[in-house]
Specification:
The complex is a heterodimer.
Chain A (H helix, E strand, L loop, with lengths): L5 H4 L26 H9 L3 H28 L29 H13 L8 H18 L6 H21 L19 H25 L5 H22 L14 H27 L4 H16 L2 H15 L8 H27 L2 H9 L4 H16 L1 H14 L11 H8 L10 H31 L5
Helix pairs in contact in A: 4-9, 4-16, 5-6, 7-8, 9-10, 9-12, 9-15, 9-16, 10-12, 11-12, 12-14, 12-15, 13-14, 15-17, 16-17
Chain B lengths: L3 H6 L11 H34 L30 H34 L4 H15 L3 H12 L9 E2 L5 E3 L2 E4 L1 E4 L3 H29 L5 H19 L4 E4 L12 E3 L1 H28 L2 H9 L4 H31 L11 H13 L2 H30 L5
Antiparallel strand pairs in B: 1-2, 2-3, 3-6, 4-5
Classes of the chains: A mainly alpha, B mainly alpha.
């Protein structure tokens, strides 16, 4: 702060000033009506007659709604008991006063195991538990942007985790009997399957080799690629056919939240590669590829999921050759996967369109081929900006898994509806209690995913487009 | 290399045929086409084999056969147990469309209200709107339908009813709404309404033309409003009040009279319109936020007041952003109305792709018809909305 001396500054005129303040006064505090709770309320709630009326109106609405909800869920709710009598009033033969209305939480507690695992055998519950642990252990570091080993993590989640959980949940030990050689040459057995597999690999390699050679190309790279792909496929089949000594659990015994997660995760994991392929196909220069992609995408996006599920449960068995039989869950998974692939394709297409043309041109100017350009330049950028869109698609898919209860699969909601038929807990509040619980679980999952997508959106928004 | 000079001399360098993009493209497409043809061929073949083995007839002859089941909701057609499967299809389509149209109406109104409330400077209103949106859109729609149907409507008393005043009476058997009764001459009111709409349309065209030519404005909105409300009113009184409402009366065994709306319909309507309104609210909010603040400021600087600024500057620009995603929400609502099958409201999916399919076993034909119907609804709506959107969109030089 500069100290002004009145003598020197004004001294030229020869005048003498009695007093000049040498220092600035500090700012005085704002009036009480503008700060603190009162000020905030004035500004945000009672700013003019219209706003005041709105505030009072909404407080009245809250007064009508909130106490009822709190009373039902907490203050009037029953927290312990062993059967329906604990949650029924005297008219219904129970112990509570007439006109009682409240949530019946012991019923949810008694059914908790079914709600989570369905009818999975009790002594084998460690297997789904291990899957849950692996899922969370793989997912959480993947979601934290600063966590290291993203690449290894992704390989674990997309490669190891699906196979491991398949083996854990079903028990593995699948039978493969071969598919190629006629039975007159060799009886169906595991050995025949592997001989068939090797013959098939050799056949594919030979076709590729001759096609490429016939057009004066170099067949080394495509051959290597084919052999690696077939070897990986063989490894997956091998792991799922090895007998680990795990008891076989058929899918009708699965259920509850476990099945909801299985459908949602399988749906999203299978729809991502398919969706990327369809999005690339839709932006392709090749007319037939483009047309087929457009038809596929628009068809699935134009019909409701429930008709798709009807189709996969009724029509799919018709389309399969005699003797091939798909399990009910697998059929639903195929329907869900194809359906969400179409939505995923549109999300990815949005990302592809958002990449500036210069990126494509730059890649081509460097002499990159189509796949190199996509793999190294375009897709990494495009997929990154559509992460929020992918998460949103996943939220939609996660909510839509409840539809499989309509075709008779016992997912979380299906299990809840099934529990209503148990007369030992039958009370007028049974349905609403279980639905509140189900809604709460879905809300927690979907809302946190939505918040995450929001967070990623802000993180990825670099400010320039 | 020895043949370096040769390649330089040639106009086109010698490339392996496989590396020629054109050849490669045709190979890929040929392979894809062959694969798809093979897939379709084998699927059709398998289906034919399997159907023949199961002894199920194919073809669309079943549409003329008697369906033999009744439904509890057929407001627009005379449906009985002797009606054919073709009638079942029409019934289902009508019920789907009825649900979708009324649902879209309420969802749009609610969505716009909540979307604006979300932007309110009033803290309580903003927070209520926020939690309305977040709760409704993060809970599966099917669950919401069950909550309304089994958790709320089914727990209402079955004999007494809650009096909703002008709306009628509500109990677990549904809403007993006032039933309009049409006397002679009621048709003239409809004609008056049609005439009013046509006249308003021409006045609007004339006023726009005059404003373009002379700059003078004409109160089109109020004229149109007066015509559309006034002409039918005049006709109503001129014809001696031919429309009256029959109110339900409370009885010992539930309300009597009036028009019964089944609880399935009410539950679906509530669930569909509130669920979709949450998404519409977010769209509306994003649309209003997308209008640059400078537009409002420039409008104020030109001396326009808040009302005209909102009406002439902000809303037309926000609508441009709002309409395309709004269309897809309308389509979503229409497609989601198929969840009616879960609580047995007789819509297209429930009666045609459900009951009729189970009775006839003709899965291929029935599912094809159902899916193509939804597809056609989607395509018609998006065509209409694309046309509307192209009219509304910014004309750039």
């Amino acid at each position: 702060m500069v100290n002004i001396d009145p003598q020197t500054t004004l001294g030229n005129a020869g005048q003498k000033v009695a007093f000049v303040r040498g220092e600035m006064i500090g700012a005085s505090p704002p009036p009480a009506s503008e700060t603190g709770v009162m000020g905030w309320m004035r500004k945000n709630l009672f700013d003019g007659w219209f706003n005041t009326a709105l505030t009072l109106f909404s407080l009245w609405i809250l007064y009508l709604v909130v106490p009822g909800i709190l009373n039902f869920n907490f203050f009037n709710a029953i927290w312990s008991g062993s059967d329906r009598l604990a949650c029924s009033d005297v008219n219904q033969g129970g112990v509570l006063y007439e006109g009682w209305k409240g949530a019946c939480w012991p019923y949810v507690g008694a059914y908790m195991k079914q709600f989570i695992y369905g009818r999975y055998p009790d002594e084998l519950l460690w297997r789904p538990n291990l899957v849950f642990v692996m899922f969370l252990g793989g997912l959480i570091p993947l979601l934290i942007p600063s966590a290291p080993f993203k690449r290894e993590n992704l390989i674990f989640m997309l490669g190891i985790f699906p196979i491991a959980s398949f083996v854990l949940l079903t028990g593995g030990n699948l039978d493969f009997n071969g598919f190629l050689l006629p039975e007159s040459i060799m009886a169906p057995s595991t050995a025949k399957f592997w001989i068939d597999f090797i013959i098939l690999t050799a056949l594919i390699c030979a076709i590729i080799h001759f096609v490429v050679k016939g057009m004066d190309g170099n067949s080394r790279k495509p051959l290597l690629f084919t052999i690696i792909a077939m070897a990986l496929l063989g490894l997956v089949i091998l792991i799922s056919s090895v007998d680990f000594g795990l008891e076989y659990v058929e899918t009708p015994q699965w259920g509850g939240f476990l099945m909801t997660l299985v459908i949602a995760v399988t749906g999203i994991v299978s729809s991502l590669p398919l969706g990327v392929a369809l999005a690339l196909g839709r932006r392709s220069d090749m007319p037939i590829v483009k047309l087929m992609s457009v038809i596929f995408i628009e068809f699935w996006r134009g019909v409701p999921l429930i008709t798709v599920l009807f189709m996969s449960s009724v029509l799919l068995p018709l389309f399969l050759p005699d003797g091939v039989n798909f399990d009910k869950l697998l059929r639903a998974l195929i329907g869900v996967g194809l359906f969400s692939a179409a939505y995923m394709a549109e999300v990815v297409r949005g990302g592809l369109q958002a990449i500036p043309k210069g990126q494509y041109e730059g890649a081509m100017a460097l002499g990159l081929g189509y796949w190199q350009m996509m793999q190294k330049i375009i897709l990494p950028q495009a997929l990154k900006i559509v992460i929020p869109g992918i998460v949103n698609t996943f939220i939609g898919l996660f909510k839509d898994t409840t539809l499989v209860s309509i075709i008779g699969l016992l997912d979380f909601l299906g299990m809840i509806n099934l529990s209503h038929s148990d007369s030992s807990w039958a009370t007028p509040v049974q349905a609403i209690t279980s639905y509140i619980f189900c809604a709460f679980v879905f809300f927690v999952f979907c809302y946190s995913m939505a918040r995450y997508s929001n967070y990623m959106e802000r993180r990825l928004d670099t400010g320039h487009k | 290399m020895a043949n370096n000079s040769a390649t330089i001399a040639d106009d086109k360098p010698k490339v392996a045929l496989l590396n020629d993009p054109k050849v490669r493209g045709s190979i890929v497409q040929a392979v894809l086409l062959i694969f798809i043809i093979w897939l379709v061929w084998s699927m059709v073949g398998n289906a034919a084999d399997n159907l023949a083995k199961a002894g199920i007839a194919s073809g669309f002859d079943f549409l003329g056969r008697t369906a033999g089941f009744g439904v509890n909701f057929a407001p627009f057609m005379d449906y009985t147990e002797t009606s054919t499967y073709g009638d079942v299809y029409w019934l289902g389509l009508q019920n789907t469309l009825l649900l979708a149209i009324i649902g879209v109406f309420f969802a749009t109104i609610l969505g716009f209200l909540v979307g604006v409330a979300r932007l309110s400077t009033n803290w309580v209103i903003g927070k209520i709107a926020y939690w309305y949106v977040e709760i409704l859109r993060n809970i599966p729609l099917l669950l919401q339908i069950f909550i309304w149907y089994k958790g709320v409507l089914a727990t209402l008393p079955s004999r007494q009813a809650i009096d909703l005043g002008a709306l009628g009476q509500l109990n677990s058997k549904g809403l007993f709404a006032p039933k309009p009764v049409f006397a002679d001459g009621a048709m003239n009111i409809v004609w008056a309404l049609v005439a009013a709409v046509v006249i308003t349309f021409f006045i609007n065209r004339w006023a726009t033309k005059r404003q373009m030519a002379t700059g003078e404005r004409f109160p089109t909105f109020w004229t149109g409003f007066g015509l559309i409300v006034g002409l039918p009113l005049i006709a109503y009184f001129a014809m001696g009040q031919p429309i009256s409402a029959e109110y339900p009366t409370a009885g010992n065994f539930g309300p009597r009279g009036g028009m019964q709306v089944i609880p399935e319909f009410i539950a679906l309507l509530l669930a569909l319109s509130t669920y979709t309104s949450a998404f519409i609210a977010e769209i509306v909010r994003a649309g209003i936020l997308a209008v640059n603040k400078g537009q409002t400021e420039a409008s104020y600087a030109l001396g326009m007041r808040a009302g005209p600024t909102l009406r002439l500057v902000v809303i037309p620009q926000a609508l441009r952003v709002i309409i395309p995603p709004l269309t897809s929400q309308f389509l979503n609502l229409t497609k989601n109305s198929s969840l009616a099958v879960a609580i047995a409201y007789p819509d297209l999916t429930a009666v045609f792709a459900g009951t009729a399919l189970n009775q006839t076993g003709q899965a291929v034909e029935i599912l094809l018809m159902t899916m193509l119907t939804y597809l056609a609804l989607s395509l018609i709506t998006s065509l209409f909305m694309n046309w509307y959107n192209s009219r509304m969109s910014l004309v750039e030089r």
